[in-house]
Amino acid sequence: MSTTATSVASDVKSFELADLGKKRIDWANQSMKVLQIIRKEFIKNQPLKGIRISACLHVTAETANLMITLRDGGAEAALCASNPLSTQDDVAACLVRDYGIPVFAIEGEDNDTYYKHIMQALDHKPHVTMDDGADLVSIALTKRTDVVDGIIAGTEETTTGVIRLRAMAKEGVLKYPIVAVNDADTKHLFDNRYGTGQSTIDGIVRATNFLLAGSKFVVAGYGWCGRGLASRARGLGAEVIITEIDPTKALEAVMDGYRVMAMEEAAKLGDVFCTVTGNKNVLRKEHYEVMKDGAIISNSGHFNVEIDIPALEAMSSSKRTTRNFVEEYSLKDGRKINLLGEGRLINLAAAEGHPASVMDMSFADQALSVEYLVKNHASLKKDVFKVPDELDKRVAKLKLESMGIKIDRLTPEQEEYLAGWSEGT
Ligand SMILES: NC(=O)c1ccc[n+]([C@@H]2O[C@H](COP(=O)([O-])OP(=O)(O)OC[C@H]3O[C@@H](n4cnc5c(N)ncnc54)[C@H](O)[C@@H]3O)[C@@H](O)[C@H]2O)c1
Hints:
Layout: H1 18-30, H2 33-45, E1 52-57, H3 61-72, E2 76-81, H4 89-99, E3 103-104, H5 111-122, E4 128-131, H6 135-142, H7 145-148, E5 153-156, H8 159-171, E6 178-180, H9 185-208, E7 216-220, H10 224-235, E8 239-243, H11 247-255, E9 259-260, H12 263-269, E10 272-275, H13 285-288, E11 295-299, H14 309-315, E12 316-323, E13 326-331, E14 336-340, H15 346-349, H16 356-376, E15 384-386, H17 389-402, H18 412-419
Parallel strand pairs: 1-2, 1-4, 2-3, 4-5, 5-6, 6-15, 7-8, 7-10, 8-9, 10-11, 11-14
Antiparallel strand pairs: 12-13, 13-14
Helix pairs in contact: 1-3, 1-4, 2-3, 2-16, 3-16, 9-10, 9-16, 16-17
The structure holds nicotinamide-adenine-dinucleotide (NAD).
């Protein structure tokens, strides 16, 4: 553990960075108007009084505002990273020094430290877990069973985590109810689509300074993230190619005007590749074998398994770092392939993750879901649940209000018309 100027348990890079972190947190807060409203309510009503929360999230300025909101609602919250490369060290330092929130996260930490930090967050003996990718829950259920009895409920932020948790529930190993924040409309329709779309392009461009106009940009996976990424790459003038395994999604991509083909073919054409599937080995040996010299490969899916890096290593005679976040692999046949950000989510590795305005909604869903779970956990089974519709709609309504946008209301006549069946026949 670092020597700290405070008595708060923590492991962060340096408290000298804390002033910078404060500015970054304040800047993000300006764009998180819905969370500000919830924070005011939390300060008044103290719905989380006495609740210990262990959160495993990307340690960014937006997450800091969520942690402060939970703390202001009466919770004792501790935070560790959900990815070794996504921590903003200045933000981590500020959360400890200025807000007294325990943080265990250092940008670039190795695998052992990553898991040690998850353990330290669990030492907090949480009543509620808050996960992004389900690593915290997995460790609690396998290696820290001592804390499980005290946990009343949890939330999950991302698609991959929800898939893992549903698998746990199906196998009967999940020990408490979880709300799948990812599945709220006000989360995946905006965060996964517009947040990942914009910030993934941001990460690729910051890492490479590559001109997308006129390039061939291959997006693997046309789910929520893939749709957003494809539309933003097209907006910058790239010719976008989609690969999919789901016929309906592939058809949607065709009718959205993209070229759709198997990766086998796309691999020969692409200048830039980005995987966003939540699946493993989507880019692999047979694809590297036919890629153009100088191809750029990246991932924005949750885990760094979408690109088969060991296969790339095995095919290469050497590698070197050519820029921050760019590793150039020299293949034995003389071609070069550039891997970005060690195959980890490139929007968080090379850029700053999603803009605050979109995390405003995701984290409003998180805060309201925790409040809901604290009130209702006793009546919920050990399963994965949706964010209640009324919370989801409330977040949308508050976001529109914060943007100064008014929408129509149903007239009594329209309500009656929609509720009945006799008219219009
Ligand atoms: N980078 C970020 O900040 C960020 C944000 C949100 C979600 N995510 C992660 O991104 C991933 C995708 O999330 P999503 O919400 O778009 O999920 P999704 O389920 O909506 O979409 C995934 C798509 O990938 C397709 N797919 C699966 N295997 C494939 C393969 N081998 N080749 C081509 N397509 C394949 C699926 O058919 C599906 O359409 C998840 O791992 C999620 O956790 C990352």
